[in-house]
């Protein structure tokens, strides 16, 4: 005898309102949902319309099938500059499975330069050093006088680093002023093996590699606040003598623009978005969200489970 087909659950990556959908055969039969909602797909027989049930609340109705929604999105986006989008960006539904509470292997902080990711990361580690850790980047640069190997950086030769980059042992790397810098995959696993969640503040390009069972990330987008708020926050930090690095109006504007660009291109990867308009409040929200993961069941990509 064949086992019953596995239950299909999907997380939606878009908002849907049947009342404004011209394609649905009967608007009253439609099920409205929001981005992030988890839906139990009960029937997939019709290629265009699935029957589904909301996991929270239990409402049922028709939703556009993946094929239908992908066609619709491809049509709308046909004249966009899609250079920074890949196929994943067209994602409509993501198949998910329910897992009992567990500690994520990585906490990935995504955001523009200057939006406070470094501060949030350091604070989490200071507050709970047994729960959180991070990696020490590798570099081919020579150590400066006060620098000790393994503290700010692990210092290696350029040859060794190039060999390991070729051998795919780096999560990401970059070149700056003629020197190589990068995060080694093994150093993430070392933090996880010690029972800690590894906090990473990497470029969003690394998300594709990270979103696997190997790294089980919780991805938090730290969004820039409005320009006026960002300017005021920077002034407060400077006035308090906490930094000597003065940002120009142009730097601040760059942060806001970069933040919007990252949100547009990568929002489907985000598990949570926190607008950093106040560092203390942003920190509290972040800490609370990560603590919740250890208490509540979680919906994760099916590939992490099976
Ligand atoms: P420094 O040599 O002054 O310590 O750092 C120079 C530059 O290297 C900085 O702009 C810093 O952001 C970058 N950098 C440091 N660690 C990494 C890393 O792990 N990966 C990449 N791509 N760049 C890094």
Automatic annotation (TrEMBL):
Keyword DNA-binding: no
Keyword terms of this UniProt record: SH3 domain
The keyword Coiled coil is annotated on this UniProt entry: no
Residue ranges of every copy of the SH3 domain listed in the record: 5-73
Residues annotated as domain Guanylate kinase-like: 104-291
Family note: Belongs to the MAGUK family.
This protein's name: Protein associated with LIN7 2, MAGUK p55 family member a
Coverage span on the entire protein: 210 to 515 of 515
């Amino acid at each position: 005898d064949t086992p019953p087909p596995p239950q299909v659950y999907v997380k939606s990556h878009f908002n849907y309102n049947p009342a404004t959908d011209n394609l649905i055969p009967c608007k009253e039969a439609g099920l409205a949902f929001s981005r992030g909602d988890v839906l139990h797909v009960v029937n997939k027989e019709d290629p265009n319309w699935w029957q589904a049930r909301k996991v929270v609340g239990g409402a049922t109705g028709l939703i556009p099938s993946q094929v239908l929604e992908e066609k619709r999105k491809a049509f709308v986006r046909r004249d966009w500059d899609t250079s920074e989008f890949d196929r994943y960006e067209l994602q409509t539904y993501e198949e998910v499975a329910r897992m009992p509470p567990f500690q994520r292997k990585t906490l990935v902080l995504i955001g523009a330069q200057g939006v406070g990711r470094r501060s949030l990361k350091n604070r989490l580690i200071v507050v709970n050093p047994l729960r959180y850790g991070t990696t020490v980047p590798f570099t081919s640069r020579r150590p400066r006088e006060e620098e000790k190997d393994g503290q700010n950086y692990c210092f290696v030769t350029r040859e060794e680093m190039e060999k390991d980059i070729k051998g795919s042992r780096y999560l990401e790397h970059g070149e700056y002023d003629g020197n190589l810098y990068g995060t080694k995959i093994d150093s993430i696993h070392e933090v996880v093996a010690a029972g800690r969640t590894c906090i990473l503040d990497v470029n969003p390009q690394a998300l594709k590699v990270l979103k696997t069972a190997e790294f089980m990330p919780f991805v938090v987008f730290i969004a820039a606040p409005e320009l006026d708020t960002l300017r005021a926050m920077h002034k407060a930090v400077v006035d308090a003598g906490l930094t000597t690095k003065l940002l120009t109006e142009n730097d601040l504007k760059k942060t806001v623009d970069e933040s919007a660009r990252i949100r547009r291109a990568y929002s489907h990867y985000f598990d949570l978005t926190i607008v950093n308009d106040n560092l203390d409040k942003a920190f509290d929200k972040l800490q609370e969200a990560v603590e919740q993961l250890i208490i509540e069941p979680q919906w994760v990509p099916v590939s992490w489970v099976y």
